[in-house]
Amino acid sequence: MKYMLTFAAILCCCSVVLNAQNTTISGTLTGIGAKTIKIAHVHVTNSASFKPKPVSYDVKPNGAFSFSLPNGWYRLQFSGVDYAPTPGFPMEVYCSGEHVKLSVQLTPNASPKVVDSVKIITDLVDYNFAKAISMTKNNDGTFSTEIKTDKPKLGYQVLVYGGEQTDLHSVNGTMADSYEYDGGGDYRSIVQTKNGVVKISFDPKKLPEGNNKPSVEFTDNFSKSVQTMIEQENSDRQEFFTAYSKRKAGKPESFNPTVAHQKVQDLIAAEKDPQLKELLMLRYLSVGYFSDDTTGADPQFVKSILTTIKPSSPVWGHQPRLISTAVKLSGTNSDEYLQKAFKENPAPYVKSELLSAMLEKASKDKNAALIDQYYKQLMSTYPESFAAKYAEKQFNPNRKIQVGNEIPKFSFDGIDGNAGTKITPEGFKGKWVLIDNWATWCGPCIAELPAIHKIYDKFKDKNFVVLSVSFDREAGDVTKFRNGKFKMPWMHVFSEGVWESEAAKAFEVSGIPKPILIDPNGKIVALEEDLRSDKLEKTLERFVR
Questions:
Q1: Are 470 and 438 in contact (CB under 8 A)?
Q2: Which segments of 436-492 does DSSP mark as H helices, in order?
Q3: 137 strand-pairing partners
Q4: Are the C-beta atoms of 56 and 236 separated by less than 8 Å?
Q5: Are 522 and 428 in contact (CB under 8 A)?
Q6: What is the spatial distance between Cα 158 and Cα 135, in angstroms, rounded to a whole number?
Q7: Cβ neighbours, 10 Å, residue 237
């Protein structure tokens, strides 16, 4: 399968009283109607790596599975031959000793009711869609082909066409001597070569039928409670960002951080289970607040959180950055707890995120020695971490995008009013340019638009222009967005590929919004935080006259 629909992962935890070092996860994995699946697996990843490789556990022929994991946070994905992986966004997975029990049911791979044609891709062409070969349709409704190869066996997948199906992806074939997982949620069929030829037949009638919705259910009460708590935390986050967007757009909003924090504090007081209490404490720390308001948090209560949750606790793996938040909300200026957590917490993910937090603080404090120390330590110790990938673009001393450097060469396709033209740095000589790296799906980006509209109206007659660089999937998303509330009457370009796009490479973008201000000579004079919200206008007043 060439893409993976990520499974909404599982959160599991255990009581501190048990003092267990491992968590057992067990359950059943079946297809529609509780039918067993030819071959199925449970795939486990954690957050320690930028591109983590899953560890796969076999599901028994009767659909049962059971394995043990060291305590910590994980993501789980389920897969089976002829079945689609469970869709949805992954959730944090916390295991700390309590036996987790699951019942999982997958839905068959999507296929048209009437199959018009079938194509095959093999390991001989590295499963390249562009090199797919059409199979011959037979009178009995099957499809067949012969492939010559010197290899002793051949791996293949099929592309099934028919009706109005648009969600095309590669799946395993119905003929196989064995199967292997493709790393993306599906399987490859493996067949043996005979006399230098592989004869392959595909029979649509052998595909499992059904349109059941996939399901993942906890059968132990503790995990059910944890899952509910995480859903509530996500609801808190959505409530805050909705209010934040309204606030930035000048609309009335009623979000009160004091009330929001107190609601969670009351839940913490009522909770009897020590593990659930700690998770609720993380929820308390994650409640949002506006930078120009009081936080709504009780400093003394936050101090009690830092006393209750030990620096070495695996619970911090949920959101390691909440350690920095707790230190800030406690009203103390000491980084003692943060430093202790970095030293004592065994999770590489936690350590890398804490190093990143210390690096960012050193940057804000303009402490060059600490910036250099933390950056080198992060890149040498946790080079494959998310934090390192981010730091490489933000703090690499040799990075292209930093104040004082010339803006790198680029050439992007203009869209909307600039369609058909190439936008390059040469076209901006003699002008101040605000480069706005953004996307229509990015809430914080949209929250910045009122401020950008304001400064555009104020400075557009002073040799000042705005260039919005879209990180959307399609250029049409920008056109549709501009037909709404925000007209964005300035220059627009689109660079296909999102995080792998030429724009991401040229401007070293690892997250958006990422604004950049360049002077009439093409030099970078301001970046990011100095060009966000209320700081944007103040920064431009310093330069554009």
A1: yes
A2: 443-459, 476-482
A3: 143
A4: no
A5: yes
A6: 9
A7: 14
Q: Retrieve residue 242's tokens.
A: 């909705």
Q: Residue 48: what pLDDT?
A: 67
| Residue 21 DSSP symbol | S
The answer to whether 339 and 354 are in contact (CB under 8 A) is no
Residue pair 188/172 in contact by the 8 Å Cβ criterion: yes
pLDDT tens-digit series, residues 103-120: 999 999 888 888 999 999
| pLDDT bucket at 12, cuts 50 / 70 / 90 | very low
Omega of the bond leading into 214 within 30 degrees of 0 (cis): no
Compute φ and ψ for 83, nearest 5 degrees. Answer: -125, 150
DSSP 8-state secondary structure symbol assigned to residue 32:
G
Residue 16 tokens read as 């501190």
pTM for the full predicted model: 0.73
CA-wise closest residue to 216 among 28, 66, 83: 28
Radius of gyration, alpha carbons of the chain: 27
Residues 12, 14, 16, 18, Cα dihedral to 10°: -150
- Residues 325, 286: Cα–Cα separation, whole Å: 8
The pLDDT value given to residue 15: 34
- What is the rounded CA–CA span in Å between residue 128 and residue 137? 22
Q: Report residue 342 as tokens.
A: 């970095």
* pLDDT tens-digit map of 164-185: 655 578 899 999 999 999 988 8
Residue at 466: amino acid letter:
V
**Average pLDDT of the residues of the chain:** 88
The Cα–Cα gap between 244 and 254 comes to 10
- Beta-carbon contacts of 192 under 8 Å, excluding residues fewer than 6 positions away, are 152, 153, 177, 198
The span from the first CA to the last CA of the chain, in angstroms, equals 55
HSE-CB for 78 with a 13 A CA cutoff: 29
**Amino acid in the structure at residue 248:** K
- Spatial distance between the Cα atoms of 229 and 264, rounded to a whole number of angstroms: 11
- Phi, psi dihedrals of residue 136, rounded to the nearest 5°: -80, 130
Q: What is the 3-state secondary structure (H, E, C) of 216-257?
A: EEECCHHHHHHHHHHHHHHHHHHHHHHHHHHHHCCCCCCCCH
Specify the pLDDT at position 312.
94
Q: Distance of CA 111 to CAs 115, 159, 205, 264, Å?
A: 8, 10, 11, 46
Q: How does strand 55-58 pair with strand 64-70?
A: unpaired
Task: In whole angstroms, give the CA distance from residue 264 to residue 266.
Answer: 5
